[in-house]
Amino acid sequence: MPYALGNGEFVLLYPLILSKFDFRSQSGGQMRVGLMIPCYVDVFYPEVGIATLELLEKLGVEVDYPFDQTCCGQPMANSGCESDARATENLFIRNFAAFEYIVTPSGSCTHHVRNKFIAADPGQERNHVRSHIYDLVEFLHDVVQVREFPWAVFPHKVALHTSCSAIRGLFMQSMSERVHDSKFSKPKDLLQSVKGIEFVEFERPDECCGFGGTFSVTEEAVAAKMGYDKLDFIGKTGADYIVSSDMSCLMHLEGCARRLQKSVKFLHLAQILNGDKQ
C-alpha cells in the first residue's frame, strides 16, 4: 500500500521497513504474535484494534487473531468475583498459550494477565501466558525496539495520559512519587518520533483519570470528578488531542468531556503510530 511523503511523492513503504528491520523470535523464526483485542475495544473502538493489527504488520510481524477470544477476566477479578472469572481466564489460556508473544493495546488488560491472573486453573500454560503477554507499547519499545514510524505524521498538540496500570503495574513510565528515580516514558519515546507532534505538559500528569474499571460504576460521582479535574489540567495547555495507550481511560475522559462540552479530541497511541490521523 503506498503512503504519501511530505513532498507529495508516493512510495511503497512495506519493502523499505521489512528490509530495514528483521524481527525474529527467540527461536530464530519470523516473529509471530497472538493479538488480543480487549472486549471493550472490540465493541466500542474497533478502529483501535485495526490500527494495532496494521501497525504490527507494517513492521513485518506475523499476527494471528484467535477469533473465539472474549475477555481477559479483569472486570470480574477487579470486583472480587474470582470464581466468575475462572471460565473466562481458562478460555484466554486456550486461545493464547501457544504464542511466544501475546500483544494487546491495553495496559490494564496486560497488568491483569501478568500480575493478577489467578482464577484460571494453575499449571504451565497459565504461567506461560502470564509471562508472555505485552502491552503494545512494551512490545514495540522493549521487544521490537522500533524507533521510527516514517508513515506517521501528526502536526498537533498532544497531552499524553499514561494509565495507572501502565505506570505502576507495568512500569512503562516513571512515577512522580518516586522522586529520586530517573524520568522516562516509553509511550512518549515512541510518539516523539512521529513527524509534527508537539507534547504539552500538564499538572499532576500521572494522577488517575477516575476510570478504574468497575470503580467508575460503583463510585460514579468520584470517578466523574476525577475525570473533570484531569480535563481541567489538560485544558489549560491548549492541547488538541488527549492520547493514551489505554482506551478505557480515554473512554471515561471522553464521556466527561462531552458532559462538559469540551472540544478536545481523543486517540489511542496505535492510531497515531499507524498513521491513521493527520
Structural account:
The chain is globular. The model is unreliable at 1-20 (pLDDT under 50). A hairpin with a 5-residue loop joins strand 1 and strand 2 (10-12). It has 2 domains: 2-143, Rossmann fold (3-Layer(aba) Sandwich), CATH 3.40.50; 148-273, Rossmann fold. It has 14 helices and 10 strands. The strands form 3 sheets. Strands 4-3-5-6 form a 4-stranded parallel sheet, sandwiched between helices. Helix 12 (220-235) packs across helix 13 (247-260). With 278 residues, the protein is of the alpha/beta class.
Gyration radius from CA atoms, angstroms: 19 Å
Instruction: Tell me which CATH architecture of the largest domain applies here.
Output: 3-Layer(aba) Sandwich
Please tell me the overall pLDDT. Answer: 90
Give the CATH level 1 class of the largest domain: Alpha Beta
Q: How much helical structure, as a percent, in the residues? A: 40-55%
Number of H/I helices? 14
Strand order of the largest sheet: 4-3-5-6
Q: What's the CATH topology label of the largest domain?
A: Rossmann fold
Count of spatially separate domains: 2
| Shape verdict | globular
Decide which structural class fits the backbone: alpha/beta
Q: Per DSSP, what share of the residues sits in E-state strands of 2 or more residues? A: 5-15%
Secondary structure: elements and pairs:
Blueprint: E1 2-4, E2 10-12, H1 13-20, E3 32-35, H2 39-44, H3 46-58, E4 62-64, H4 74-78, H5 82-96, E5 101-104, H6 107-115, H7 124-131, E6 133-135, H8 136-144, E7 157-161, H9 164-169, H10 186-191, E8 198-199, H11 215-218, H12 220-235, E9 241-244, H13 247-260, E10 265-268, H14 269-273
